From TrEMBL, chains A, B:
Keywords: Oxidoreductase. One of its GO terms (molecular function) is metal ion binding. SUPFAM superfamilies: Dehydroquinate synthase-like. This is Alcohol dehydrogenase. Residues 186-372 form the Fe-containing alcohol dehydrogenase-like C-terminal domain. Belongs to the iron-containing alcohol dehydrogenase family. Residues 10-175 form the Alcohol dehydrogenase iron-type/glycerol dehydrogenase GldA domain. InterPro entries: ADH_Fe/GldA (IPR001670), ADH_Fe_C (IPR056798), Alcohol_dehydrogenase_Fe (IPR039697). It comes from the Bacteria.
Length: 373, 373
C-alpha cells in the first residue's frame, strides 16, 4: 500500500446510449453555449443536441482546432459572455472539451486566458456557469479531468493548465456519438486511453482505486478495440471503448501520466503524429522498461489480462497496434537517428516524465527511443 | 455493458498513516464540533485530534450509541448550533459518521431531524458547514456514502436517509486509528466491507467502475483480513483493510446493497447480532444463489480472486469466517425454524432486497435461510 494518497473526482457521470438526445433536464439556466470543432458542427451533431434543449437559447461556437490556441479560447469566451451563458457544453475530442472548461470559468472571470495561464498572474474565482462535457471519441478522458491543454500561439508552447474549477459538473457519455468514428481514429484514440490507464497504473503517484480502475480499463480495451476498429458499428464494442476511456480518464486524473505522454509532445509537434499515435508508439518500450522497476505489480496486471509474462504482453500490444495499421517504429514517423537526442531532451523537459517508475535521463531515454527506431 | 448508469462520488479522500495528527490545514472556520461515541472520547482519541487543531475552538459530543437514534441527532445538533460549528467532524464507526452527516446540515437548517426524516416533510437546503468523516473501523464505508441510518425511537424503526448533502467534504483515512481494534471487531467490520463489495458487484444497479473497485476491494480483504485478525499490529494489513473498506464504500455508494443487508436488519434488531455478523452469516448462501443468475460475472470474479469455482469460493468464505470465530449458522445466533418466516418477511420489506440478482420472495428467502439454519 502507498504511504499516502489523495483521490478527488467530483464530476457526475451519466452513461446511456442516446443520452444526448434527451439531456434537457440536466441543463441549467436559459442560455447554453455549445463548443465544438467545425466537423461536428457541419455534420449536424452539435445542432442535434442543441435542438433537444427546448425553451433554451442555444448558441454555437465551432472554431476549435486540434491543439487549441489561447486565441480560440478568447474568441469562444467573447461569445459565451455575449450570450450570457448559464451553461457551456463542450462537445468533441479533447480540444473542444478543454476549451469548454476554461470558457465556462471566463464567463464570470474577467480578462483573457493569458491573464490566468502561461505567465498570467490572475487566479480563477469560483465558476458559476454550468460545465457539461460530452466526448465524441473514446480516448482523451478529458470529461473527467481537471486539466486543459492550450497552445500559446505567441511562444508556440503547448502547456497543460490544471485547475479545480475545470472538473465538469457533468460528463455525459453517449456511445452513439462514436459509432461513426473512422477506424484510424478508433485505433489512435483507443490506444491513447490504453496509455492513460497503464501510465496511471505504473505511475509513481499510483493509488489503489486507480490501479483497480486501470486494470479494468485495460481489460475492456484489449477485449474490444480490435472489434471496434474492424466493425465500427458494433455497439457493444463502442460502449466498452467509451467506458474504458472514461475509466482510464478517472485513473490518470489522479496520478497524471508518465514518459509516454512526455515523449509524445515532440513527436506530435515536430513530426506531425496524432496524439494517440505519438503516445502508443513508445508504449511497448515503456512496458518493458517499467516492468524492470515494478516487476510484481506488472506481473499481476499481465496475468489478470491473460498473458503469461510482461514480454508476451509487450509483444501482444505491438502486434495489436500493427493489426490496426498503427506505426510501431519511430522511423515510420520520419524520425532519424540524429533526431533522437533532441526528442529525448524535449521529453525530459516535461515534469511528468519523472513519474515513470524508471530512471529517466538523457542517456536512458535515448536508449529507449533507439530501441524502437 | 449496462444500458445506463450514473456515477457520482464528490468526496475528497485523503489517506495517510498519522494524518489525523496533522489535519489542521484541512479544517475550515474557527469552531469545530467532533462527534464520537463514548469509547473514543474516553480513550482520548477524539481529544488527540482536537488538540491538533491549533487556534480553533473545539467542542465534543460523545453520546453516540450503536444504531443511533433521532434523539441523539437532535442532542448533537443543539451542541452544534450553540457552538456555531463551521466544521463537523464525525469520528468512529458508522454511527458517529452517520450522525455527523445530518448534524452538519442541521446547523443551518431549522428544526429537528424528524422534520426531514421518517415522515418529515421539510427538505434540507444546501449545507454550509464543512463535513469531515474519519472512520476508526475498516468496515462501514460511511465516509464515502450519502447515506445515514437512524432509528426512530418512537416507532422503533431503523431506516436509511439518503441525501446529496450527506457526501462528506473530506474522508480522512488514517490506518493508525484501527491498530487497536479488537480482533472480533476486525472480523465483523471487515466482513461487512466484504459484503458491501460483493453486493455492489452482483447488484442489479451494477456499473463498470464499481465492478472494478469491488474486485479490488475483495482481493484486499481476502489477502489481509486474517492477518489483521491474527496480528492486530500488522500495519500493512491494517492499511489494506481500511483501504478495502473505503473502496467497497465507494462501490456500494453507487449501487446500494442487496439481500445480505436486507436480512441483516431483523438479525440485528431481534437477535442482537452485530451488523457485520448479521450480514456475513448469509454471505456464503447469497454467493451460491447469486451465482445462478450472474454465472459469467461471478466466474470472472472468483477466478480473479484465485478460486476455481464459485462453490469453492463460497466454501472458502465460510471457512474464513469460521477461522475468525464468526458464526456461520443461524442457530448460533439463537434463530429457530419457527423464526424463519418472520425474518424473511422483515427482510423482504427492505426495498434493497430486490437489487439481488435472484428471485427474492417469501418462499425463496425462507429456503435460503433454512439452508444455513
Amino acid at each position: 500500500m502507498q504511504e499516502q494518497f489523495k483521490f478527488h473526482m467530483p464530476t457526475e457521470i451519466l452513461f446511456e446510449n442516446g443520452l444526448t438526445q434527451k439531456m434537457g433536464r440536466y441543463i441549467k439556466g436559459s442560455s447554453v453555449l455549445i463548443i465544438s470543432d467545425p466537423f461536428l458542427y457541419k455534420n449536424g451533431t452539435a445542432q442535434r443536441i442543441g435542438d433537444t434543449l427546448a425553451g433554451k437559447t442555444v448558441t454555437y461556437f465551432s472554431d476549435i482546432e486540434p491543439n487549441p490556441s489561447c486565441e480560440s479560447v478568447d474568441a469562444a469566451t467573447a461569445v459565451a459572455r455575449e450570450s450570457k451563458a448559464d451553461c457551456v457544453i463542450g462537445l468533441g475530442g479533447g480540444s473542444s472539451l478543454d476549451v469548454s472548461k476554461i470558457v465556462s470559468c471566463l464567463v464570470t472571470n474577467p480578462g483573457s486566458i493569458y491573464d490566468y495561464y502561461s505567465g498570467g498572474t490572475r487566479v480563477l474565482e469560483s465558476r458559476t456557469t454550468q460545465l457539461v462535457c460530452i466526448p465524441t471519441t473514446a480516448g482523451t478522458g478529458s470529461e473527467v479531468t481537471n486539466v486543459g491543454v492550450f497552445t500559446n500561439r505567441k511562444t508556440h508552447i503547448k502547456m497543460p493548465m490544471v485547475n479545480n474549477q475545470f472538473w465538469p459538473d457533468i460528463a455525459m457519455i453517449d456511445p452513439q456519438l462514436t459509432y461513426t468514428l473512422p477506424s484510424a481514429v478508433t485505433a489512435s484514440t483507443g490506444m491513447d486511453a490504453f496509455c492513460h490507464a497503464i501510465e496511471a497504473y505504473w505511475n509513481k503517484n499510483a493509488l489503489p482505486m486507480c490501479d483497480m480502475l486501470s486494470m479494468g480499463a485495460l481489460k475492456l480495451i484489449i477485449d474490444n478495440i480490435k472489434t471496434a476498429y474492424d466493425t465500427p458499428s458494433n455497439c457493444e464494442a463502442r460502449s466498452a471503448m467509451i467506458v474504458a476511456s472514461l475509466v482510464a480518464g478517472i485513473s490518470f486524473s489522479q496520478t497524471r501520466t508518465t514518459g509516454i505522454h512526455a515523449l509524445s509532445f515532440p513527436l506530435t509537434t515536430e513530426f506531425g503524429a496524432s496524439h494517440g499515435t505519438a503516445c502508443s508508439i513508445t508504449l511497448p518500450a515503456f512496458i518493458r522498461v517499467s516492468s524492470q522497476y515494478e516487476a510484481q505489480k506488472m506481473n499481476s496486471l499481465v496475468h489478470y489480462l491473460g498473458y503469461e509474462s510482461v514480454e508476451q504482453f509487450a509483444d501482444a500490444v505491438e502486434a495489436l497496434m500493427r493489426s490496426m495499421n498503427m506505426p510501431v517504429r519511430l522511423h515510420e514517423l520520419g524520425v532519424q537517428e540524429k533526431d533522437i537526442p533532441h526528442i529525448a531532451e524535449v521529453g525530459l523537459s516535461a515534469a511528468i516524465i519523472q513519474l515513470t517508475p524508471a530512471d529517466m535521463n538523457q542517456k536512458t531515454v535515448e536508449a529507449l527511443l533507439r530501441s524502437i527506431l
